[in-house]
Write a structure and sequence with these properties.
This protein is 76% helix and 1% strand. The protein is an all-alpha fold and 343 residues long. It has a single domain, classed as ABC transporter involved in vitamin B12 uptake, BtuC (Orthogonal Bundle), CATH 1.10.3470. The protein has a two-stranded antiparallel ribbon with strand order 1-2. Strand 1 and strand 2 form a beta hairpin.
Length: 343
């Protein structure tokens, strides 16, 4: 995908320096997001004004800060999944939303939401379980459809993902049509992406899950580097291509399922962030993958800040903001890759 581009040699010093800078930018973005909003707050009173009738503390510590932290986690998960999928498929257009994984996760989550709302007796954690199951099922289906004569065909895989996404979207709309008014409104807002009403417990659980998935992926960044050279080259260099792809697809799907379960469908993060990060630091996945996690968290924190602050007291779904950024970017990539194909 980027084999013709030369990048600086990765040294421990460069690795630490890049991640330190990106971490500082991420921390600054989280702090800015917690302080920015339609309602002005007194930071000193929020932190040191006591707990009794302290509205500033409620806004800062119970609403804005956990929401910004959840945006960090979700953005990091989606960016990591997008970077890995682009490596496995050697296709710059690969992205969880386009490959049907997000659609499958959303369908599983919607089924769980309807069941929880209809019975009132089922536990709320059924929604993440449903999202995980939907993401895995979608990835298995798309993987099988994209495998021809035992070999994965990237463009067939992409087309299968688009079809799967459209099919799950139709199923979601059918379910939404049979839901009552309040359920339908909640499902629609959730599908467009929302990071409202997050708790520190949920943020911590999601962060632990993201860390586990990313750590596994980081152990295999050398294989991802080799896979970017081509399937035959990777096999000749001793990489078990089939096993690495299957497990990496499964881990990526579970990361996407976790993200969708807590935030709904937020598209294009996994498309934009890996490309921008690759342009900034190079295509070595040993650095690209952790850097994408940090840049993805920063991007979604800023996008969510815009979604809840740009129009005063009115809030738009964060998925709308990412789509407005990602749509033109996708068209740019499509034209650029089409031009390369013609050349």
């Amino acid at each position: 995908m980027d084999g013709a581009v030369r990048h600086p040699h990765l040294t421990p010093q460069r690795f630490a320096r890049v991640l330190l800078v990106l971490s500082a930018v991420l921390v600054a973005a989280v702090m800015a997001s917690a302080l920015v909003g339609s309602e002005h707050i007194d930071v000193g009173r929020a932190l040191f004004g006591g707990a009794e009738d302290n509205v500033d503390a409620v806004i800062l510590l119970r609403i804005r800060l956990p929401r910004a932290l959840m945006a960090l986690v979700v953005g990091g998960a989606l960016a990591a999944a997008g970077a890995v999928l682009q490596a496995l498929l050697r296709n710059p257009l690969a992205e969880p939303h386009l490959l049907g994984v997000s659609g499958g996760a959303a369908f599983g989550g919607v089924v769980a939401l309807i069941l929880v709302g209809a019975t009132g007796a089922l536990p709320a954690f059924l929604v993440p379980v449903g999202s995980f199951a939907g993401a895995l099922a979608a990835m298995v289906i798309v993987y099988r459809l994209g495998t021809v004569h035992g070999r994965l065909q990237p463009y067939t895989f992409l087309l299968a993902g688009v079809v799967c996404n459209a099919f799950t979207g139709a199923l979601i709309m059918a379910l939404n049509a049979f839901a009552d008014f309040f359920q339908a409104h909640g499902i629609l807002f959730w599908l467009m992406g929302s990071l409202q009403t997050q708790s520190y417990w949920l943020v911590a659980a999601s962060a632990v899950y993201l860390t586990g998935g990313v750590l596994w992926l980081l152990r295999h960044t050398r294989e991802f580097n080799v896979l970017s050279l081509g399937e035959e080259s990777a096999a000749q260099l001793g990489v078990d291509v089939g096993r690495v792809r299957r497990v990496a697809f499964a881990v990526s799907s579970l990361l996407v399922g976790a993200a969708v379960s807590v935030s709904g469908m937020i598209g294009f993060v996994g498309l934009i962030v890996p490309h921008v990060t690759r342009l900034l630091i190079g295509a070595d996945y040993r650095l690209l993958l952790p850097a994408s996690v940090l840049v993805g968290g920063t991007f979604l924190v800023l996008a969510d800040t815009v979604a809840r602050s740009a129009f005063g007291a009115s809030e738009i779904p964060v998925g709308v903001v990412t789509a407005l950024c990602g749509g033109p970017f996708f068209i740019y990539l499509l034209r650029r890759e089409g031009g390369r194909t013609l050349d």
